[in-house]
Amino acid sequence: MDHKLLLKEIRNKKFEKIYFLHGEEPYFIDVLTKAIQDNALEESERDFNQSILYGKDAEVLSLISELKSYPMMAERRLVILKEAQYFKAIEQLESYLENPANSTIFVICYKYKTFDARKKTLKNALKNGVVFKSEKVKEYQLAEWIQQYIKTTGYELTSKACMLLIESLGNDLGRIVKELEKLAVLIEKGTIINENHIEENIGISKDYNVFELTNAVANKDNLKALKIVDYFEHNPKAADLVFVISNLFKFFSQIMRIHFLPNKSREAVARALGVHPFVAGELTNAKNKYDPRKIAANIALIHEYDLKSKGVGNTSATQGELMREMVYQLIH
Q1: DSSP E strand boundaries for the chain
Q2: Are strands 18-23 and 130-133 parallel, antiparallel or unpaired?
Q3: For residue 138, is it within any domain?
Q4: pTM score
Q5: Are 159 and 280 a contacting pair, CB within 8 Å?
Q6: Do 88 and 166 belong together in one domain?
């Protein structure tokens, strides 16, 4: 079931006896759990009817006792097992999940990995409740997800600001949402958020970041690239060498693929690479500046500096020095 549909049912107070929430993306699990907490019980009912346990500390007999307890001056009880991925006795819940209490909502938060669908534990949960698999948003869908999310909060976001968030924060949805929530406190509703808002309020430089470094390398702008590297050297938290290497490797791998695509339209490139059309356009322009032979040489060079960053063949050069050498050689 889609998390939006499940969220709607929860907010409409249509509850299941079991919610088995599992998967690699913790954000959706957190959102659904909070919605259940906010809607299952009135605030005055929570002291006696809400129990939150943690997988590392929970004992199976105590947990089952909580699950089978009757509500006190309320319609239902709510029991939440957080960090269930650490609960070693989870398969001992099979019998309860097969015959759950009618007056208890049981939420299992199994984060950062998927639970084995072949196991009876999950099958019983599905038979008597909801099993929600929380999957990571794919890279090519991330910009669209952020844009849809920001619209629900009453704002808009420029493409460049969106790309800046993605390049700086990756696909950590929880962190992205947290940063956008900060902006919502500081910026008037209805504003179109741009890269200046991101720089001023989140602390991600609109000019000195890995996104701009990759653009400088893409355009063979040596002066701009080295200025950004110098900024990174003096502000280590802005970007480390491993992150820079990862992004540059991805960039050259993508433009190599574009060279050999039969259809090089922006839409075809976006589909083939699984990226946003805005990014596809930038990559298509960049591939004209690097022929396949140079790209292959650059990929080999990036691999060499990846090893150097880990101490292979390097005993004295700093990360900043390695970054400067690598970027210079990639462009020239």
Answers
A1: 18-23, 50-54, 77-82, 104-111, 130-133, 156-157, 192-193
A2: parallel
A3: no
A4: 0.72
A5: no
A6: no
Together in a domain, 25 and 78: yes
Q: Rounded to whole angstroms, how far apart are CA atoms 8 and 12?
A: 6
pLDDT digits (tens), the chain, 332 positions: 688 899 999 999 999 999 999 999 999 999 999 999 999 999 999 999 999 999 999 999 999 999 999 999 999 999 999 999 999 999 999 999 999 999 999 999 999 999 998 999 999 999 999 999 999 988 778 888 999 999 989 999 988 888 888 877 778 899 899 888 888 888 888 899 988 888 788 777 777 888 889 999 999 999 999 999 988 888 877 778 888 999 899 999 999 999 999 998 988 998 898 887 878 888 999 999 999 999 999 999 999 999 988 888 877 888 888 999 999 999 98
Quote the domain boundaries for residue 238: 210-331
Flag whether 298 is in a domain: yes
Task: Report the amino acid identity of residue 303.
Answer: H
Provide the token pair at 20: 């088995």
Residue 62 is classified by DSSP as H
DSSP state for residue 138 in the 8-state scheme: P
Considering the domain architecture, whether residues 129 and 244 belong to the same structural domain is answered as no
Q: Same domain for 296 and 179? A: no
Q: What is the number of domains present in the chain?
A: 3
- CATH number, domain of 121, equals 3.40.50.300
Tokens of 153: 């909060």
As a whole number of Å, the CA-based R_g of the chain is: 25
Would you say 305 and 172 are in contact if contact means Cβ atoms under 8 Å apart? no
CB burial readout 266-297, b (16+ within 10 A) else e = beebbebbebbbebbbbbbebbeebeeeebee
Does the residue 107 lie in any domain? yes
Under 8 Å between Cβ of 66 and 53? yes
Q: Which of 154, 166, 164, 148 is nearest to 192 (CA)?
A: 154
